[in-house]
Specification:
The chain is an alpha/beta fold. It has two domains: 4-55 and 195-274, Rossmann fold (3-Layer(aba) Sandwich); 84-192, HAD superfamily/HAD-like (Rossmann fold, 3-Layer(aba) Sandwich). Helices cover 40% and strands 20% of the residues. The chain contains eleven helices and 15 strands. It has helices at 4-8, 36-45, 61-69, 83-94, 106-114, 140-151, 175-186, 198-208, 222-232, 246-252, 263-274; strands at residues 17-20, 27-28, 31-32, 49-54, 80-82, 99-103, 118-119, 129-132, 155-158, 164-167, 170-173, 191-192, 215-219, 235-239, 258-260. The strands form four sheets. A six-stranded parallel beta sheet has the order 5-4-1-13-14-15, sandwiched between helices. Strand 13 (215-219), helix 9 (222-232) and strand 14 form a beta-alpha-beta unit. The longest helix is centred in the first third of the chain and has 12 residues, at 83-94. It binds magnesium ion. Magnesium ion (MG) binds next to loops.
């Protein structure tokens, strides 16, 4: 007898590409979640293209690559997408050779610099945009200069909307909290690059050369991963190893196409569908 899960999973047969959240989906803190290596082996064996899609703007692509590769996954930098990459591309296309004032860390700084964008300090120059990501060394000075540049007409861009970030100490302030402070100060709303907005999903599909109808989004958060995937027209899979689970699907009212306990269960269901 087929399980209800197996019935709702029939869409997997038609999936040629997958976008994959990292924290809570592939990793928990510095640890690999169960089945990580087998999951990527499965994707490679079945020629399913993939892009990771992380809302975390603080880490560089090579930091993620080293972290995931250390668990035995053969992962190229070209398969990794974070909201820093998306933000840098957005700024590069809109303001070629432009200047930005940045609040953020190495992940964002590297992405912007590699895209040929000049990062200015203080009020040394007119910024085309103020780019804000998670910054564990946030200061009054940084908030002041960001506010002034936005008041002077710089576009206000946020890497991701997340208010809090899970750490060993508990939930600590993330990018979203800085965005709220600056929005309150300037009365300007930021354009947000990360999930659930379309920018990262669009770039991921463009890199893979695929359409939403053949792509699925896998993640652990309903409001970002699942809602974003749905908005883009993708099929969505919630994995219960991070923030959300079957119970929060009911309370939050965001319905994924499939809910799986963990990566091994997803691989088992997908294999069954492929026969
Ligand atoms: Mg996550």
């Amino acid at each position: 007898m087929r399980s209800p899960q197996a019935q709702s999973a029939s869409f997997l047969k038609d999936m040629h590409a997958i976008m994959i959240d990292i924290d809570g989906t592939l990793l928990r803190g510095n640890l690999a979640l169960p089945g990580l290596v087998d999951f990527f082996n499965f994707l490679n064996e079945h020629d399913i293209q993939f892009q990771t899609a992380s809302n975390n703007a603080t880490k560089t692509l090579s930091a993620y690559q080293q972290k995931i590769s250390a668990f035995g996954v053969n992962l190229s930098i070209n398969n990794i997408l974070t909201c820093s990459t998306v933000t840098a591309l957005y700024v590069q296309e809109k303001y070629p050779g432009g200047k930005v004032y940045m609040i953020g860390q190495s992940g964002l700084e590297e992405a912007l610099t590699q895209a040929g964008i000049q990062i200015i300090s203080g009020m040394n120059g007119k910024a085309d945009a103020v780019v804000v990501g998670g910054d564990y060394s946030l200061t009054y000075e940084k908030l002041k200069y960001a506010s002034l540049h936005i008041q002077h007409g710089a576009e206000f861009i946020g890497t991701n909307p997340d208010l809090l970030y899970p750490t060993d100490e508990g939930l600590v302030p993330e990018c979203g909290m800085t965005l709220v402070a600056l929005e309150t100060a300037t009365q300007v709303k930021p354009v947000i690059m990360g999930k659930p907005n379309h920018f990262m999903f669009d770039l991921g599909m463009k890199k893979m050369g695929v359409q939403p109808i053949e792509t699925t989004m896998l993640g652990d958060r309903l409001e970002t991963d699942i809602q974003g995937g749905k908005n883009t027209g993708m099929k969505t899979i919630l994995v219960e190893t991070g923030v959300d689970n079957q119970a929060s699907v009911v309370t939050k009212g965001i319905q994924p196409d499939l809910v799986v306990r963990d990566l091994p269960e997803l691989v088992a269901i997908w294999k069954e569908q492929l026969g």
